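Q: C-alpha cells for this one, please.
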Amino acid sequence: MSKIICSAAIRGAHKMVKRAEDKLEEAIKASAQAAGVPVYFARSGSMFTIFFTEEPVRDYASACIADARRYAELFCALLKSGVLIPPSALEANFISTAHGEEVMGETVEAFASALSWIASKS
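A: Here is the predicted structure, written as C-alpha cells:
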C-alpha cells in the first residue's frame, strides 16, 4: 500500500472515531442533564471518562471528589446492558473504528437508561 493511501486511511479512521466520540459525548451529557445527574466528561483523543461531579476534573485530587458510588452504579447498569466500561472512573474508555453506528446507538441507549435509573435512586 502506498504511503499516501495509508495516510488517507488513517486520517479517515481518526475522523470516524472523532465523530463517534463527539456524538457519544453529546448524548451522554444530554441524557445526564435530562435525568438531573451532574457529570463531567473528560476526554483526550479517543479516550474518555465520566465523573459524577459538577466541577471540572483536572487532576487526581479533583477526580477523587467525584461521586464514586454513582460511577459504580453506572458500571453495573451498563454491564447488565452489555456495555463494558472500566470499573473505576480513574481509568479510560476508548472509542475505535470497531465501534460502528449500531454499537454506538446501543451504547447511547444504555447510558440514557443507566443515568435515568441512577437519578431515580437519588
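A few notes: Residues 3-35 form the longest helix (33 residues). The mean pLDDT is 90.
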